[in-house]
Write a structure and sequence with these properties.
The complex is a heteropentamer of chains A (372), B (235), C (297), D (366) and E (256).
Chain A: H1 8-12, E1 17-24, H2 31-47, E2 50-51, E3 54-62, H3 67-80, E4 85-87, H4 92-105, E5 109-111, E6 126-128, H5 133-146, E7 152-157, H6 161-178, E8 184-190, H7 198-207, E9 211-213, H8 221-230, E10 237-239, H9 246-252, E11 260-263, H10 273-286, H11 295-314, H12 319-327, E12 332-334, E13 337-339, E14 351-358, E15 361-369
Parallel strand pairs in A: 1-3, 1-4, 4-5, 5-6, 7-8, 7-9, 9-10, 10-11
Antiparallel strand pairs in A: 2-3, 11-14, 12-13, 14-15
Chain C: H1 3-34, H2 41-58, H3 63-86, H4 94-116, E1 121-122, H5 127-130, E2 132-135, E3 138-141, H6 142-164, H7 166-176, H8 178-183, H9 188-213, E4 216-217, H10 223-236, H11 241-261, H12 269-283
Antiparallel strand pairs in C: 1-4, 2-3
Helix pairs in contact in C: 1-6, 1-9, 1-10, 1-11, 2-3, 2-4, 2-9, 2-10, 3-9, 6-7, 6-9, 7-9, 10-11, 10-12, 11-12
Chain E: E1 2-13, E2 16-27, E3 31-35, H1 42-49, E4 57-62, E5 65-66, H2 72-78, E6 80-82, H3 95-103, H4 111-115, H5 119-138, H6 154-167, E7 172-176, H7 184-201, E8 204-208, H8 212-218, E9 221-226, E10 229-234, H9 236-240, H10 243-250
Helix pairs in contact in E: 3-5, 3-6, 7-8
The chains are: A alpha/beta (372), B alpha/beta (235), C mainly alpha (297), D mainly alpha (366), E alpha/beta (256).
Bound molecules: adenosine-5'-triphosphate (ATP) (2 copies), leucine (LEU) and magnesium ion (2 copies).
Leucine binds at residues 33, 90-92, 113-116, 162, 241-242, 296 of chain A.
Amino acid sequence: KNDSLPSSETASGDSDVIKIGVFEPLTGENGGGGSQEVGGIKYANKIYGEVLGKKVELVIVDNKSDKGEATTAVTRLIEKDKVVAIIGSYGSGVSIAAGDIIKQSKIPTMGASCTNPMVTQGNEFYFRACFLDPFQGNVMATYAINSGANTAAVIMQNGDDYSIGLGNFFIKSFKELTEDENSIVATSEFQVNDTDFNAILTNIKSKNPDVIFAPSSATTAPLIIKQARALGITCPIMGGDTWENPAVIDVAGKDAEGIVLSTFFDENDPATEEAKSFVEGYKKELGDSEPIIPAVAALGYDAYLLVLDAIERAGSTDGTAIRDAIAATKDFEGVTGVINFTDEGDADKNIAVIKTVKDGQFVYIDTVEVKQ
Amino acid sequence: MLKIRNLNVHYGGISAVKGISLDVPEKSIVTLIGANGAGKSTTLRSIVGLVKASEGEINFLGENITDMETTEIVTKGITLVPEGRRVFDNLSVLENLKIGAYLQKEGIDENIKMVYDLFPRLRERSWQFAGTLSGGEQQMLAVGRALMSKPKLIMMDEPSLGLAPLIVNGIFDIIKEINKQGTTILLIEQNANKALKIADMGYVLETGTITIEGPGKELLMDQRIKDAYLGTSKK
Amino acid sequence: MSFETFMQQLANGISIGSLYALIAIGYTMVYGILRLINFAHGDIFMMAAYFMVFSMINFSLPWYIAIVLVIISTVILGVVIERIAYKPLRDAPRMSIMISAIGVSFFLENLATYLFTGVPKGFPDIPFLTQAANIGGISLSVATIVTPIITIILLLCVLFITNKTKIGMAMRAVSKDYETARLMGIKINRVISTTFVIGSALAAVGAVLWGAKYPSVMPLMGVMPGLKCFVAAVLGGIGNTTGAVIGGFILGMGEMMIVAFLPLLTGYRDAFAFIVLIIVLIVKPTGLLGEKVTDKV
Amino acid sequence: MMINNNRKLMRRSLTVLIIIAFASIIILLDTKTIGDNYVRRILNLGAIYAIVSVSMNLVNGFTGLFSLGQAGFMAIGAFTVAVFTVPVELREAIFYIVPQNPLVANIELPFFVALILGGLLAALVSILIGMPVLRLKSDYLAIATLGFSEIIRIIFTNMKTITNGALGINRIPGIPTMWITFGVAIVSIIFIVLLINSSYGRAFKAIREDDIAAEAMGINLFKHKVISFAIGAFFAGIGGGLLASLLGTVDPKQFYFTMTYNFLLIIVLGGMGSVSGTIIGSFVVTAGLEYLRIFDEPLTVLGVNIPIFRAGFRMVIFSFLLMILVLFFRQGIMGQKELSWDMIEGWFKRRKGLPKKGKVDKGGTI
Amino acid sequence: MSVLKIDNVKMQFGGVIAVNNLNIDVEKGKIVALIGPNGAGKTTAFNVITGVYNPTSGSVFLNDKKITSLSPDKITKLGIARTFQNIRLFKNLTVMDNILIANHLNVKSNFLSSALRMPWYIKEENHMRKKSEMLLDKLGLLGIKDEIASSLPYGEQRKLEIARALATDAKLLLLDEPAAGMNPHETMELTEFIRNIRDEFDLTVFMIEHHMNLVMEISDKIYVLDFGQLIAEGTADDIKNNPRVIEAYLGVEEDA
Ligand SMILES: Nc1ncnc2c1ncn2[C@@H]1O[C@H](COP(=O)(O)OP(=O)(O)OP(=O)(O)O)[C@@H](O)[C@H]1O
Ligand SMILES: Nc1ncnc2c1ncn2[C@@H]1O[C@H](COP(=O)(O)OP(=O)(O)OP(=O)(O)O)[C@@H](O)[C@H]1O
Ligand SMILES: CC(C)C[C@H](N)C(=O)O
Ligand SMILES: [Mg+2]
Ligand SMILES: [Mg+2]
């Protein structure tokens, strides 16, 4: 029954360009991170601009960080622009929303930094280049406990798959690791667009946790951090990959000092040869616009290379062929490490980088390896 | 004092006033009568610039005011007591009077006293919100408010509308009184009988054109007017 | 809950409540005179925050000069919006003006997204305002203490202007009847502009105090405060300045108290404003202090 | 006489032709002979917007109730379809944080049953809401309905065991054919038009014109307002249900109050109180928004990148066009009038530069 | 027999007592006038009768049935229709639509069957149209049935408002200053008109008016209100010479 759409062969088979769709938020809540990720993808396209002897053209659409808009944007990429593969998106929510269309149209899609398990689950056309939230939650819980925390409070954003997912995975790991059901002293959810966290934080303060874990967008994070400090909360505040964003330091100012976050990549510790040349080249490309290379840019770069590599190996632009090639990827040397895919289509990664903020800069603390 | 030549006014595509000319001499009472929708109100509104004339000229004290802004025309000394009183019901009686003198720099207090002497009722109600006054009181206020700007020409659009007979008589007395004190008056009335009685000059407007004009007393005798406006069934 | 925590929550409530109140005054003034729900008010507030970012960070001006500059530019923005988007519709049906206001709001939001990107910018630190004080275990920033005071002072100023001055009288007259106001020699455009001057200036002050408290400036930052403050204004009886302030305080306090005392209902925090609003409207259809409108039949 | 009859005949046959042409286009699109899924999607979206906008016009334009609750009613329809049509076996994966309430977890309804149920639930809620708030006047009604719409959204955000909270529900089975959206749209709109032209429709207009006089003419204000409001909500619910199925994913954030503004804009663009205008407006807005995407894409002219073309520019242009429209074409596309042969002939003649004879139509259109 | 009986009605707004202990009887088939100074409470009395206001105390009876505190639409259904001091037509609708709307109260079909054009609704609609055309014909308004109400001359609008009230099939007609804004000539025509419809439609008319020529000429009985209180009642001649009425309301006619 699934006589899907005019397949991509006819579309780009006889033209001399191969189109790859880039599906990212450029505006809206995640516009900042999305733009960073696109930066990495564009850079990869600049370096590796050809495959199968044809020019690769990126078609970038803005999903506006909105689930409804996301489905339209993906349909447009597939139907109007006839892309052979898609990269994206920053923000798990929009990725999950677009998943069904991708699955039905059989267009292989490579998520760069969407970490929620739901993105690839049950969708054989969705892959991703990054680690997952259960892993990340575990990493942060482990780190918190190793640095001496016995109790924690968690703040999550209602409706953000990423935030809720990561928060809950953290809670799960933290309870397991401390072997104490009551070690999470407070959990609070806030709503999109909330800016005032004083009430939540006042309650948390009265519970006096050893650490606060607040996975949230780069937009919200600094507000939580600043208000916590203004209320006289002194315990460490931790977050996830979204926090490695200059906006956090920019907005939170001196209060950002000492926050802890996990991320995918550290420019000072290039894992592979590819990473070395990427760091060098992309630093130049960025110039002064970003103090450090955003991890999502590195992931975007990897996602592009993974797709390109698969097209090369498939020797065709047929969706299913590319999909199979991606699934068969073996020890691909990307910027963020060596990548293989699990059966679900997730990059089989087991290291995360822990960073903190010092003197207004993100600095490396540790690389954590967790056996799952 | 006021000269209108060949005035035309349109609302969208509809022509409401079709080339009328009239004169209001200084210190006189001129009245404009005519059926509903004849264009009486429109004429007055175009004099004060609330609607723009599409053709013709309006001259006040030798100055062409046809294309002036309402505020400017008011400054020249013309005011209008609009159809339906239109007092500011969220302002007190006193504030309504003060706002009548919005452009006045001085002499406001004397003016207020003058109006209060004319309408002692308003003095009693000075602090009441205008919205809660009775119809007759509101009409007094509307006239009083117009007097506050010490106009040279005061135009009144159906000041007796909806008023009890006793009050109607009062209003006409006041018009005469104001006129005696030196203010020129252009009056629109449905109560043609009473209006023509006090008017020096009368004009009859029919569907946008002036059909009859002459001194008030003469028009009162005019058979056409008797038939059309005065009602012949005198008991 | 300890006494300290309670007092802290109370302080939190007063602080956000007074911010709502401050912005609500602007809403109510514009409504009072134009009968227009100025949907763009929240976005003017947002632009003011950006102005502050630019003047202090990009042009490195000291905060006191920056504030003056921000107030001036916000006022200009407000008046320009009025001239371009509302004035031509003076005699149009109210629905058109309302749509125009929504259009302006869309335009400002999209323009800001386009020009300044969606990435939040840090609100410049005004050391004087962000200084933290600890009073008996309650942490307060100077901004938190100052905001309610400023709100009350500005309320008194606005009340004085509307009730005791000539321009205030003209404002009230214009709000009832443009045409008759013109007949009195009132330049209604000037009066309306003055209203926007005051309203926008209040939005600018609100933005500075807001920024000191929530230092993240982004294109959609005005939407929620805009909506809440509008609700505050309606709650108090739209058009009534004192009502707007009371409404703002009720909302701010209520929101905090929900989170503080009923943590389970935290998710309903944003609904609180509307639930209170609807209850009040059902009991009193024109808000707490709103004028009773009876149709004169 | 003869000429007149000929003309009538010609008009009638033209109308039939247009209907046939329209149906054929849909059939061709539907069988994928022409167009692609993207085009189909946009047309479907346009049809859904038309349903919601026309029903909103019934309430706001024809009954004169300033209601801003449309997004909330759409949410009810959308979530009903989402909750009841997602295959049972997928639910566990979707409700991965908090499992779905066993009461609904095993119920799976056919699409049309869920769609109608969504509409009915929306109508029911609107009646409950209407009881207290329909007494309110203009702006107060507007803010109260907007408030209820937000409350509905917030409740959905918090009802995690039923709606999956703010995460929303995805993997909603899609719409197999365009006839579903267009069919529902056509039926809904015909229903509303017939209603507007019935005695009840006249009563609605009477309330819009002057509610005190309407009441004095024996019209039960409350009853009629509730009927109009509930019908508006019913079709908004239907529109929401279709939208859920079209997008395949719903979450409460989509039904933010600003969504209602879109419909308001469509109504004003099309002409307040004109059904045909509203329909045209719906398609113009949906297609236009997509068309404007060219402004979001980098533009290179002669090898030079024009820097103003980048993400977000589209929306700036969109809002700018909107302002121009509101300011200079206040009447919208159709004013208060409906599309008719007379009007089309009028345009035609003007185009050809033929002298307009007889009555000049009384302004209004742009 | 009295059609309308106002029994000791009092209407208070905050501190203002607009109507105080009012007692009025309107007899079937008569034309009765209510006069009095501005702000005396006349319109308020009408509003109480038609259910716009709930009286503070006292009751109103229509044909001996108590109608106090019923809603305006119910009262209209029971047979009282009115016009307004300031014309309140459905301005942007046609004359015919204005009349049809007044027929709506008799529609039995529900909204579903009317939208679905069920046969019984179509029958009702046809009947309604025929009846409305007949009414317009009788009042001489048939020629303008497709005009937009607001485009009519003032006098026609007044007539239309009366026609609309008649279309509800009411037998008691309340007219609030029907002659306001009319000149003496037009007022005279209106006098004839009111008399004619009273006879033609078998009506009872209760009206408020300040034009004394009209009132004195047409009324079978006159009630005079001042400060919410009845100060006189009787025939035209009684009232004309009642000193209290002259003092409070009529004043002294200067002359002819
Ligand atoms: N705002 C308007 N728009 C369109 N037409 C109007 C407007 N105002 C008045 N008219 C029309 O212009 C004509 C003249 O109206 P105007 O009000 O000047 O008459 P009038 O002599 O004052 O009558 P009345 O005795 O009823 O006050 C009428 O046909 C009226 O319908
Ligand atoms: N809704 C209301 N609220 C407060 N006061 C009211 C209300 N309606 C009427 N009044 C007051 O009641 C009194 C009577 O008003 P009403 O309109 O009945 O007078 P009227 O006799 O019809 O006068 P007119 O001849 O001027 O129309 C007035 O003082 C009026 O201000
Ligand atoms: C790109 C990431 C920082 C965002 C986050 N991991 C998510 O999936 O939503
Ligand atoms: Mg007039
Ligand atoms: Mg009255």
